[in-house]
Amino acid sequence: MKELLRTNDTVRLSWLQALLGAAGIEAVVFDRHTSIIEGSIGAIPRRLMVPDEELARARDLLAAADKQP
Length: 69
What we know:
The protein is built from three helices and three strands; from the N terminus they run βαβαβα. The chain has a single domain, classed as Alpha-Beta Plaits. It has a three-stranded antiparallel β-sheet with strand order 1-3-2, covered by helices on one side. By secondary structure, the chain is α+β, with helices and mostly antiparallel strands. The termini are far apart. 12% of the residues are buried.
């Protein structure tokens, strides 16, 4: 798996997982449970991971979504 995005924004992560899932791309959030260890302060960004072969398509979807008004 390859990293598509790293962020502390849990809403954005959830939205992107739904967007990628609708396109048939499996997206997994790494480091989600790290917030429990760090005390839920959001200091450690979560990583959105996609299969290696889907990285280019996932980047295109992310770029297109970011351009939406």
